[in-house]
Specification:
Strand order of the largest sheet of chain B: 1-2-10-15-14-11-12
CATH topology of the largest domain in chain B: Peroxisomal Thiolase, Chain A, domain 1
Order of helices and strands of chain A: HHHHHHHH
Distance between the termini of chain B: 32 Å
Order of helices and strands of chain B: EEEHEHEHEHEHEEEHEHEHHEHEE
Helix content of chain B: 25-40%
Oligomer: heterodimer
CATH class of the largest domain in chain B: Alpha Beta
Radius of gyration of chain A: 22 Å
Largest sheet of chain A: none
Largest sheet of chain B: 7 strands, mixed
Number of helices of chain B: 10
Strand content of chain A: under 5%
Distance between the termini of chain A: 63 Å
Helix content of chain A: over 70%
Number of strands of chain A: 0
CATH superfamily of the largest domain in chain B: Stage V sporulation protein AD
Number of domains of chain B: 2
Shape of chain A: extended
Largest interface: A-B, 39 and 31 residues
Number of strands of chain B: 15
CATH architecture of the largest domain in chain B: 3-Layer(aba) Sandwich
Number of helices of chain A: 8
Number of domains of chain A: 1
Chain lengths: 153, 338
């Protein structure tokens, strides 16, 4: 017996939760981690290659870093627009979502989706639906770090 | 005194069972590539259906399905008493806009993915009650509008959980009539909103399985029938996991349906080839499989009596974020060869 329907509702819910957890397929964490490591590592390597290239071309270090980010963001945005990014992310997971490529994808995907509701109330209003929390909590952490530095330096 | 046409707690029976005189099933390319590909009336390869938005595309799918069904029945919209329709968009807008274009008196329905069977139930009640001669029931869903409504943008890079289902792009319609030839609707069991505490919006099968179970059990108790009196019990969109859950829950209630129990969400896709994970879902899932494959099997005499159970997960985009669990619902209708 999986769920005893003569028992109180709380007991039924617990029995059912255990049953669902037991039967639901689990993602293959090992495979996902290996994919994320390889693709994430590849993106980092490409980023390093770009940085080295821009430095070799004579850009100052800050500008070379910014240009690297620009190229990665552009590539992710382009792949999103071509409808390829989500196919890569299906396998690469966090490897492609955690780097700056994921942030670019979250904004472009949302912009494409909101296009039909117009430029202002669609794209403009909804651009940060997915990416917004990253910015909000990034700012909050930066603010806390600044406060900490101010108080304890 | 109990109502004259009610059996037990939740079941109604029809004295003059309304006939399903025609049906229309329109699907997208993914559904057409699935195992039931040849059973649909029309395939629309373009997810935009030549329109500017997915929402407009969904509305056109709905209109196409209705028009195919009306054509087969040789009827014009003016000859239809009532149009019952629903979908998954905000405020069931696809149905409302289709109703505007089709011009039939319209009742909008929302039972999430159970809406098709909810519509068949209401339509059959209207006809057997003497309030209508002909009723059109139609529902639609579109994978892109549903993802937009409930989940992430379609191009967002996410890994879909293995328990997640794939929303069927398509629309199904049936014409119910007081007279005429075709399979008949003899009984309907209206389900309760059942909640066994599942709150995961990526596992609708688990949220809906207890409701499907409850409705099937209630139907069998109300009618005094055993599972063997049905050639097939087919749920709407429990998917692979939900169907297995429901099968075991039915055993807990003392009913073993074994191999006569399947699900439209399992029938419509090939999970290995099509990467659909748990199976198909959405209003159109039960609608296109019933309006296509199931009715064809009944008409061919391969199935005599089918218990169809539309299943729905009653959430909105915010309720899981607010900590609500997801109630499920199941509405059943008996479709018989005549």
């Amino acid at each position: 017996m999986r769920v005893d329907f003569t028992k109180p509702a709380g007991m039924q819910r617990k029995q059912y939760r255990d049953f669902v957890d037991g039967i639901s397929p689990k993602p293959n964490v090992l495979v996902n981690v290996v994919w994320a490591f390889l693709v994430g590592g590849l993106i980092a390597t490409i980023g390093q290659g770009l940085l080295t290239l821009f430095l070799a071309l004579g850009l100052p270090v800050l500008e070379a870093g910014a240009m690297t980010a620009v190229v990665l963001i552009f590539s992710a945005a382009l792949l999103t627009g071509l409808g390829v990014f989500d196919d890569i992310a299906k396998y690469a997971g966090a490897g492609v979502i955690v780097p700056i490529t994921g942030f670019a994808n979250a904004m472009v995907a949302q912009a494409m989706e909101a296009r039909t509701e117009g430029l202002v109330l669609g794209v403009g209003a909804r651009l940060f639906t997915i990416a917004g929390p990253v910015l909000v909590f990034g700012l909050v952490v930066a603010w806390l770090a600044g406060l900490f530095y101010f108080l304890f330096r | 005194m109990p109502a004259a046409k009610k059996l037990g707690q939740q079941t109604v029976f029809f004295q003059n069972p309304p006939a399903i005189i025609a049906s229309g099933a329109v699907v997208g390319s993914k559904e057409a590539e699935g195992p039931l590909g040849k059973t649909f009336d029309r395939v629309i390869d373009d997810p935009y259906h030549g329109e500017k938005s997915w929402e407009r595309a969904e509305r056109r799918l709905l209109e196409d399905a209705v028009q195919i069904a009306l054509q087969k029945a040789n009827l014009s919209p003016q000859q239809v008493d009532f149009f019952l329709a629903g979908d998954l968009e905000n405020q069931t807008e696809a149905s409302a806009l289709a109703a505007r274009d089709l011009g039939m008196p319209y009742l909008g329905l929302y039972g999430a993915c159970s809406t098709f069977y909810e519509g068949i139930t209401v339509g059959a009640v209207l006809i057997d009650g003497g309030f209508a001669e002909r009723v059109v029931v139609a529902v639609s869903s579109h994978c892109c509008t549903a993802e937009k409504q409930f989940r992430f943008p379609t191009e967002q890079g996410v890994q879909r959980p293995l328990t997640q289902s794939w929303t069927v792009t398509g629309a199904g319609a049936v014409v119910l009539a007081a007279g005429g030839s075709g399979p008949v609707v003899t009984h309907a069991t209206i389900g309760k909103a059942i909640d066994l505490g599942q709150g995961d919006p990526s596992n609708f099968g688990a949220a809906m399985a207890p409701a499907a179970t409850d409705t099937i059990v209630r139907h069998l108790l109300d009618t005094g029938r055993g599972p063997k009196e049905y050639d097939l019990v087919v749920t709407g969109d429990l998917g692979i996991i939900g169907r297995d859950l429901a099968e075991e829950l039915l055993k807990d209630h003392g009913f073993d349906l074994a191999d006569r129990f399947t699900d439209c969400g399992i029938l419509i896709y090939d999970p290995q080839k099509q990467d659909t994970h748990a199976g198909g879902s959405g209003c159109a899932c039960s609608a296109v499989v019933t309006a296509g494959y199931i009715l064809q099997q009944i008409q061919a005499g391969k199935l005599q009596r089918v218990l169809g159970v539309g299943t729905g997960a009653l959430l909105n985009a915010d309720s899981p974020k607010q900590g609500e669990t997801i109630p499920g619902i199941g509405h059943a209708a008996v479709i018989e060869r005549r």
